[in-house]
Structures are given as structure tokens and as C-alpha cells.
Amino acid sequence: MTKVLMVVSAADHWTLNDGTPHPTGFWAEELVTPYSIFTDAGWDVDVATPGGKAPVVDKASLDDSAGDAGTLAAVKMKLEKLQPVLSQPLNLADVNAADYDLVFYPGGHGPMEDLAVDETSERILTERMENNAPVALLCHAPAAVLATENAPGGSPFVGRKMTGFSNDEERAGGLADKAPWLLEDRLVALGAEYQKAPEPWASYVTVDGNLYTGQNPSSSRELAQRLVKDLA
């Protein structure tokens, strides 16, 4: 059976450039849609967070503006069913990522706060890249690769094709001017070969060997389905 480790942010806020906390967490669609696609394919999925802390859903991801009515209703229903899993996640520090066929990071602004500087996540990502083992990051979750920028020998993500939440999308969401940094800018500065969809909010997925990335919430389904196709 294919085994997936889903690494979820434990942050409940994102510290803005004026020091104020912006309530956030994980983006509902980016967690429940891939989780459902993976489990429907017969895959076994474990959820882990830094410190084993129960993750918090970003309330904005459940707002009427977060998607069409049908999709949003399905996301809310699936999220409710996942509460027993999310209430007792594994502690990321206790996990052996080598036991998993895929390590998957859903987004939301939460990863900008904790996973971007998390040493355990850094080690997992570095080892996955060194071993050419599949890893996938969605929307804001590519922020996690920034923790590898000072790795001995340089970040393993330098020169790799990646996408992630774009500057245009952050501006459209109203947080760009308040952000301490923007994901697209930091990925470019890291040395990744950043790519994005021609238009904001369109589904967009990149694949570079073992590295899979999705740009935004709309990319959740396409990214998960591509992983199932490639790894099944």
C-alpha cells in the first residue's frame, strides 16, 4: 500500500510586518481534497505537525468567497469527518519520513509562520531530495523549502522547477502590503526556477523529477490526481 505523510502547519497565525498576528492555519481545500483523493485510491495517509499540535483550519477557507457552493459544501463535510484524525496528529519530530512513499505539504498561510523555519521539516525535505523520494508542496506550503537555504552545500531546491502562491494572488487577497515577505520573491531569491499560471487563481502544477508543486487552492485536485497517476 502506498503510504503518505501529510505535513501540516501547526501555526494559528502569521506574523505581519507590523508585528500583529493574522489568524490563519491550513487551507481546508488543500488538505481535504488531496487527503480524499489519496484515500479513495487506497493509499494510507498519516498527518503530522510540528510538536504534534492539532492544526487549525483557516476560517477564511470556509467562507463563501473561498469557492463555489458545491465545492465548499463538500470540503466542509469532509473536514468534519477528518476531525478525529486532525485532533491527534503525529509529532513530526517522531516520524521517520523514509517509511513513506510520498511526503505532502498542504498550504494556507500557516507554513509561512512555522514550517519555513522548522528544523525537522528541513531535514525531511533535504533527505527526500537527496534520495530522489517524492515530495509535494501546495500553495503557501513551498515556504517550507526556505528552511533549507543554509543547508551545507546549498539548498537542494536551487535550480528546481517550482510553483507556489504568486505575488499577484497575494495582492489580490489583500495581504501583500502587510506581508513580511512574499513567497514568490523568496523562492526566486533561493534560486528555484519559479513558474506560475498565466492568470491568477488558475490551477497550475509543476513536476521536476521527484518534486511536485501546486500554485494555489485551485491546484489541489490536479496536483493530487497527478501524484496518484505517477505513484500508483
TrEMBL record:
It comes from the Bacteria. InterPro entries: Class_I_gatase-like (IPR029062), DJ-1/PfpI (IPR002818), Prot/Nucl_acid_deglycase (IPR050325). The keyword Lyase applies. Transmembrane segments: none annotated. The keyword Lyase applies. Keywords: Glutamine amidotransferase, Lyase, Stress response. Residues 28-229 form the DJ-1/PfpI domain. Belongs to the peptidase C56 family. HSP31-like subfamily. This is Type 1 glutamine amidotransferase domain-containing protein.
